[in-house]
User: Fold these one by one.
Assistant:
Number 1:
Amino acid sequence: EKKSTDSSKTQESAMKKKQKKTKGDPKTGLEEESHTCCGCRFPLLFALLQLALGISVTVLGFLMTGISSSLLVRDTPYWSGIIVCVVSLVGFVMLCISYQPDEKTCVQFTVKLMYFLLSALGLVACVLAVAFSAHHYLQMTKFTCDTILESCRCKLDTADPLSRTFVYQDAADCDSLTIMLNLYLLLQMVLNLITALVCLSACFVMWKHRYQVFYVGVWFYPLTATEGQQQKV
């Protein structure tokens, strides 16, 4: 009788294991849901936004270089768009890596760390691009420009002989130059500001996903267990 009961128990346990395999572990399901958003894996939305915004900023920066050859690199922030495009590519690489909880693989940890650091770098670059564009735009609103020898010469204060003169080469028409440059600077400010917010949200989500769990209970659990055992003794 004991053998029959033991065999029946083993059969029941085997059946339960099969049912668990077919149904799936609820913990793994919860872990998969924790790193998804609207049915998509975490970095997909941020990577797509970063790629679209990075390409827009880069194209607009190169268009600004065509207005005048004397524009400085800080005034044509294609560099911030290139950085954000690289960040989005790292996000797509992270999508190709199979997710494992608690970053059990070295590759997953390295890619996530790279994505976090590059997103922070993209945030800083976009903030700098916004600052440079805003400064140049404010100067453009106070300029007094004249066309001299196929170049546009602008001054902040015409009454002051020592006032700094800004020269825009390859610009035959100052009016069209100022209008186009003001428009491009405004677009750069808006696009870089949105990109900075996207990079900031990506950093915040990654930080929250990594550090939102506090392990206080794990540290104090052995102490409570030993105290309970001592009380029982």
Note: Confidence is low (pLDDT under 50) at residues 20-35, 212-226.
Number 2:
Amino acid sequence: GQGVDEPLSATGFRQADAAGVFLSNVKFTHVFSSDLLRAKQTAAAILGKNKWCRDLEIKCDARLRERKYGVAEGRPLADLKAMAKDAGEQCPSFTPAGGETLDEVRERARDFFEFLCQLAVGLGQKEPEGPGASSRSSGASKEQFFFPWANHGSKAEPSSEGGYSKMLDANILVVSHGAYMRNWLGYLVSDLNCALPADLSKSQLSSVSPNTGVSHFLVQLEDGNLSKPEVTCVCLNQDSHL
């Protein structure tokens, strides 16, 4: 939750370093993190292993915080499940006293995603600098980015040959929390019809990401149209680095 702002454990730091090594050859244009300490430390560890953008500013945003669990925060997961059972409900739909509903979390996720889309459109509409600068239909020169996947097909297996490349206006790293990200995915799938990997099962779709699990989405905004983003999930909760 939000109320107990503990740092990463020794295991957490090892996992964050492993994620950093896995993403070390990915050049990010922006980094956003939850303002909770464990997320900020994870983002810093990932950048610390990066070959291209170790000095990139980490921008913290409260909209990326974990779901608020009210009276259940700081207590074992078994206590939350017991509270839900006593209320005749099941996790994760159960909302403890003082906690956020799933709809409230999804609204935070929607708000932040729309902010990212506006950011990307603003970058895409910038004029190229200098004489002879290359330009595309958006009015900006795009940059080629490399990702640690063999391709962007359904399985998105890690590549031993440097991964695949993609021309993008922005390549954004977002570091958040498990329950929050599951709600964000729900928004992308239910509201935006996000295209999913063909081999993704229903149980995988509803599962919580492991610590430092990596999910990769491509977002296309045709002609800067913010109302109709096309979202493709390349991979979900990738944990091959752990």
Note: The chain is about 30% helix and 15% strand.
